[in-house]
Amino acid sequence: MEINTKLFISVTCTSFFTFQLLFYFVSYWFSAKVSPGFNSLSFKKKIEWNSRVVSTCHSLVVGIFGLYIFLFDEATKADPLWGGPSLANVNIAIASGYLISDLSIIILYWKVIGDKFFIMHHCASLYAYYLVLKNGVLAYIGNFRLLAELSSPFVNQRWFFEALKYPKFSKAIVINGILMTVVFFIVRIASMLPHYGFMYSVYGTEPYIRLGVLIQLSWVISCVVLDVMNVMWMIKISKGCIKVISHIRQEKAKNSLQNGKLD
Fold first, then answer.
1. Which residues cross the membrane (predicted)?
2. Phi and psi (nearest 5°) for 81?
């Protein structure tokens, strides 16, 4: 157990410093190379841009890694509550390092990117992941929750388009918006049903009782807090998607009317 603890601490620290490096150095260089519009952004916009570049990198790493673990890691699936150290723990340690890194950036640049909901989200996630890594429990659940990160690249891309002043109803923004809504719903909203269904199915069983009251309550409360925020974000995203679809329909109707007049 001591060796695993050292491993998870090492992974968390490596993750933290890697994402710090991405934010302070790599993103500036990379963004200027791939997007000419980056250099014309204000200082505040560049800070949030770099923050979202790092967020996208983190989401792709833990999301894809998490999906692989969810589908193929038999060690994690064999015992969802008490499964021994596995790839899922490593993925959770990577996510923990990112969350600590992002929290430090949010606090340091609070006037630019400060957001109380992100503080709540990060703290709730970190507390849950700390319990997973410290006690060696619920790695399967922790990894399953990380699949939610697969929606973040689309959310961040929407912000990039807006920062670069793409037309609001351009094809790129519309396609990304629809994908964002669908993926966000699948990995953050629809996933609630199997998650809470599993929680109900193990309630009262011997492995569940062995978790202890602290971990049982932490499992429920942290997930509920995160899911309430996910529902709030889903409502906001859905309203935007409906507005875009309504605009497209209006434009099509207008074009059909104009074509009819021309005929």
1. 6-32, 53-72, 92-110, 173-193, 213-235
2. -90, -40
